[in-house]
């Protein structure tokens, strides 16, 4: 099979592992810098050019699109889909999961457990917004933030009001969430591949920090997840339409709640913590499922 990996940096651990795993299994794998790919849109025969040449056809494409280039990356991936290439994750599903508010609304509609979340535009509504999520302490998140950046915990309602007023003054899109105290600064990252949780790890925030992201100094350890947590992770990925996803879950007093569904989950933390060949299982999924013109959306949406 010919597999393209859409990634800005071939030296990133996740990209490198996917290339290695694909080549070990006898496939031809090529890394394509997402921002150097460009498209002929108006043609009856859609094509993608790369660094001055037209790309030959691929059987499958693995999108590793960074949050900062979601719009352009999704356009490139959509062009691959229009050419009949099998995408590991579809462009529509990636765009859906990157919009934090939209993704929570979709999960809520399907009855997936979530923290109480509020969203407002006017500073006049701040007091009611705070009480809606159960008062302080609470968490304020920038909708565009990633890897824990743009996430603030407010211990008091006065602090929450000040932060919300500041963000709203900057015309930033923010949402407010209840703080799940019982999680104790820990979350569970479940890696879903093809409707199965293939690996899970617990991420614990460092002392004095509430964000458990490994990029922020959090530590990872093995964890045995419950059947309910497994089912929640699989359902969350399915609602987003993602074949491969990192689903972040908190253990709350009212069962597992989903914090986020990530369409390009990093492989380094989960592979080193669990010892599982996650990249190999992703390639295996492509081998079993990649067929021409299999995209449900065919570039629509």
UniProtKB/TrEMBL annotation:
Cofactor note: Binds 2 magnesium or manganese ions per subunit.
Sorted UniProt keywords: ATP-binding, Ligase, Magnesium, Manganese, Metal-binding, Nucleotide-binding, Protein biosynthesis
Cofactor(s) this protein cannot do without: Mn(2+); Mg(2+)
The protein's Enzyme Commission number: 6.3.2.-
Signal peptide: none
GO MF annotations in UniProt: ligase activity
HAMAP family cross-referenced by the UniProt entry: RimK
Protein name per Swiss-Prot or TrEMBL: Probable alpha-L-glutamate ligase
Taxonomic lineage: Bacteria, Pseudomonadati, Pseudomonadota, Gammaproteobacteria, Pseudomonadales
């Amino acid at each position: 099979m010919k597999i393209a990996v859409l990634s800005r940096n071939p030296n990133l651990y996740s990209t490198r592992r996917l290339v290695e795993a694909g080549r070990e299994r006898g496939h031809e794998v090529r890394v394509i810098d997402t921002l150097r790919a460009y498209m002929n849109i108006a043609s009856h025969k859609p094509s993608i050019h790369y660094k001055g040449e037209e790309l030959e056809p691929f059987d499958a494409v693995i999108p590793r699109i960074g949050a900062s280039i979601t719009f352009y990356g999704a356009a490139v991936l959509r062009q691959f889909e229009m050419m009949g290439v099998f995408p590991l994750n579809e462009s529509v599903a990636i765009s859906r999961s990157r919009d934090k508010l939209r993704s929570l609304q979709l999960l809520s509609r399907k009855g997936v457990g979530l923290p109480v979340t509020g969203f407002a535009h006017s500073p006049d509504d701040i007091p009611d917004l705070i009480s809606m999520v159960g008062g302080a302490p609470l968490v304020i998140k920038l909708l565009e933030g990633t890897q824990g950046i743009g996430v603030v915990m407010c211990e008091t309602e006065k602090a929450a009001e000040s932060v919300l007023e500041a963000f709203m003054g900057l015309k930033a899109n923010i949402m407010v969430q209840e703080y799940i105290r019982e999680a104790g600064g820990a979350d569970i990252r479940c890696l879903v591949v093809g409707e199965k949780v293939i690996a899970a790890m617990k991420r614990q925030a460092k002392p004095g920090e509430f964000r458990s992201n490994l990029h922020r100094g959090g530590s990872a350890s093995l964890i045995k997840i419950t059947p309910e947590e497994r089912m929640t992770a699989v359902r969350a990925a399915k609602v987003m339409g993602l074949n491969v996803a990192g689903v972040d879950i908190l253990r709350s007093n009212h069962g597992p709640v989903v914090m986020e569904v990530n369409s390009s989950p990093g492989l380094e933390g989960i592979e080193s913590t669990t010892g599982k060949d996650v990249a190999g299982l992703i390639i295996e999924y492509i081998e079993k499922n990649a067929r021409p013109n299999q995209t449900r959306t065919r570039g629509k949406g």
